[in-house]
Hints:
This is Large ribosomal subunit protein bL27m. By secondary structure, the protein is of the alpha+beta class. The protein contains 4 helices and 8 strands, in the order αββββββββααα.
Amino acid sequence: MFSLQHCFTATTSPFSLLGAIRTATKRAGGTVHNHGGSAGKRLGLKKFSDQYVIPGNIIVRQRGTVFHAGPHVKMGRDHTLYATAPGYLRFYREKWLRGERKFVGVVLQRGEVLPRDEQARGRSRYCGLVDHNNLAASSPVSQAL
């Protein structure tokens, strides 16, 4: 049956009336999603309109084609745009299918406008035959030195 000693030990235990109480074995903390991520990739414009560039200068680092390559600009395999000829940078928009596209191009003179009116002004004749010495004498980089 029911013994007196069993009743006595049951009432002296602090957990007898409440049942079992769990205590924390670790400190409370939130969860981390994706464990901190990775460093930023420093995307965006590196050169701006009317700024002097030389061949190889990176103009835009981008994911996808936000900007497209215009005259004397090429696109790398990660969609980076870079200059292929010395000159001044120009940003412009052109009608493309049903919308517009943003382009980046390089021109010889600072005030020149893109897209170039080839019927009135003729072609921009870089073709690898630009006199770099003469162009360097009029560039802002050589004037600063």
